[in-house]
């Protein structure tokens, strides 16, 4: 499975690795279910043409990849939960909304965006939420054809990832919150690639503990 910018999910949640595994599991299950159903209901030539189209799209960017699975990216931002990049065969997810709404996000957004990709492979460009997509959602994904999500987007619209300053023998480094937390919990140590020294946090005197 090709995954892009998974570090953005790890920054958005302390449980980012668990969420990533859940997303991957759901995508695999959704792909197995959808392709199995399409193989059963479509004429053989139409199904073969669709799979060939999928491979053609993916191999523009990943020529050695023979998987039908969509490329998975966590670069989506703002109020949008996810988007389907049709000609890249890519699903782009919002890591902040995923972190804040994990179960409903995984169950709803992934099949929604994957349905867009399958419709494109079968019919080309049609109305984004037209009858083809609605049928894909209802008869292949076994889900209601909901066009929009109901997630609270207040934090995803404004949230900025906090950085923590560390230093070695030769310079300072900016670490993400997830890396900082792993260091604080004794789960990880980081080294400078130039001097090889272990990174140490710079204490910020303006910080205070909160109860």
From TrEMBL:
<keyword id="KW-0482">Metalloprotease</keyword>
<dbReference type="Pfam" id="PF10263">
    <property type="entry name" value="SprT-like"/>
</dbReference>
<keyword id="KW-0378">Hydrolase</keyword>
<feature type="domain" description="SprT-like">
    <location>
        <begin position="55"/>
        <end position="202"/>
    </location>
</feature>
<dbReference type="GO" id="GO:0008237">
    <property type="term" value="F:metallopeptidase activity"/>
</dbReference>
<protein>
    <submittedName>
        <fullName>SprT family zinc-dependent metalloprotease</fullName>
    </submittedName>
</protein>
<dbReference type="InterPro" id="IPR006640">
    <property type="entry name" value="SprT-like_domain"/>
</dbReference>
<keyword id="KW-0645">Protease</keyword>
């Amino acid at each position: 499975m090709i995954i892009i910018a998974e570090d953005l999910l790890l920054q958005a949640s302390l449980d980012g690795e668990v969420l990533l595994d859940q997303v991957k599991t759901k995508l695999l299950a959704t792909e197995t279910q959808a392709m199995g159903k399409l193989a059963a209901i479509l004429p053989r030539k139409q199904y073969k043409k669709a799979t060939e189209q999928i491979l053609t799209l993916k191999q523009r960017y990943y020529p050695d990849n023979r998987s039908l699975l969509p490329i998975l990216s966590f670069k989506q931002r703002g109020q949008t939960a996810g988007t389907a990049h049709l000609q890249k065969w890519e699903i782009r997810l919002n890591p902040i909304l995923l972190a804040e709404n994990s179960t409903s996000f995984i169950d709803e957004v992934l099949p929604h965006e994957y349905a867009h990709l399958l419709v494109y492979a079968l019919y080309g460009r049609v109305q984004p939420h037209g009858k083809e997509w609605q049928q894909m959602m209802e008869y292949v994904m076994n889900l209601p054809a909901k066009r929009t999500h109901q997630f609270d987007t207040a934090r995803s619209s404004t949230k900025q990832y906090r950085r923590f300053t560390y230093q070695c023998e030769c310079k300072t480094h900016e670490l993400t919150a997830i890396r900082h937390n792993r260091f604080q919990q004794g789960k990880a140590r980081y080294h400078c690639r130039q001097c090889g020294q272990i990174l140490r946090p710079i204490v910020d005197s303006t910080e205070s503990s909160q109860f």
